[in-house]
Amino acid sequence: xxxxxGTTTGRPWxxxxxxxxxxxxxxxxxxVTTIAAPSLARSVGASIGELELIANxxxxxxxxxxxxxxxxxxxxxxxxxxxLGVGLFGLASLGIALSHGVATLVVFRLxxxxxxxxxxxxxLALVRNxxxxxxxxxxxxIWGGANALxxxxxxxxxGLLVQRLSWPSVFALNVPLAVVVxxxxxxxxxxxxxxxxxxxxxxxxxxALRGVSLGATLVSVSSFGVFGLLFLLTLYLQNAHGLRxxxxxxxxxxxxxxxxPGALAGGVLAQRFGPRWPVCAGFxxxxxxxxxxxRLGITAAFPELLVPGALVGAGTGLCAIGxxxxxxxxxxxxxxxxxxxxxxxxSQAGGVLGVVMAGAVVSWRIPAVLPERIAQAALxxxxxxxxxAATEYLAQGVLPPGFGEGPGSVTAAAAAARLTFLDGMRAAxxxxxxxxxxxxxxxxxxxxxxxxxxxxxxxAPAAPAxx
Length: 467
Known about the structure:
Layout: H1 12-44, H2 48-76, H3 78-97, H4 102-130, H5 137-164, H6 169-172, H7 174-188, H8 199-207, H9 210-240, H10 245-251, H11 253-257, H12 259-273, H13 276-293, H14 302-330, H15 336-377, H16 381-388, H17 391-394, H18 412-443, H19 453-458
């Protein structure tokens, strides 16, 4: 039988604020962690493989837990699960801030991912429950844009904290934010539940809808490029280009903050015209931006990153929110928690693949280009052999220990290391651009809108069969 299904209950706009702040914790954590990666690696002695593990164990735990968490939210209450997720996220963040080794970091990042899995689908379901079906476009655009703003401000805020304090401070920031979100949720959010159907049955019924299945695929593709880009860009800016954390954070505003207007535009355009063309256009813009960023050099000036980075950000906002609207609009409101979980699984899975691809392509490319870079630098054979044995360091754009590079000095070995990393980054960004173009082609298969949003909501498919 059906549980209670809320429709425009509670305080809609304060509910949206609570969901936005909760989601911002996750988005902010992603980019502040990225900007802190070089400092964290030096502090705990992490290799690029261990950096990928620290980043991906969170994403994998998040992706694996999202669908069960979405169903749990539908069963026991979306506000209850949301508050639980926010509280656990704050506690896990505190554990990370107190960690001093790779193993402990991995454990608490795993816990943080589980907490995020509880938080994220419940947050989006709360927004779906607070607003009428025909008026979801703008709230979804605000939700996506605000989360993108948190992602965009993360590098600058993280850079300030790392440079002025230390990398643990970027995680400790989540603790007071969690307290504020929990208090707001208890005041503003109405509890709601959904249908108590078996998970496999619900998923089969939802994925049979083309808007849901194709929308989930496109959400995943939209995350693939931007997650891979952010992983590489922070290594490029701090290790290869030589910027300090705050300056690197400012440079990263181009591909992150521009997601905000892109997301708002994506929500409005998808609500007005349907998601097909906004999503397709977004992927084309992202592909152009990624291809442009692949041309960056070691001494690139900020304007060289600004334009292509802005294209990636605007395109990602357009396609991610348009694809999300396609998913949420195609499924029944009673399955809001499950739809939200599916959307987040798709996003995180795409992000994991993007980070893995970025690291793998860079590591694969290094052995192919290193001999040429060593020859260009006219390095002695012994030095060249040492470089060839140091792929883990070169894949981060830094020299292995013992090369004696002083602050501000640019030796031939340092130049070879940085240029080798740049070759790998270029190849990875071109792969991401090709995947984005594939997403543009897939977006053309999204269903055409049957009419105005109100009409589409009135003819939405029936809820999945219940027990």
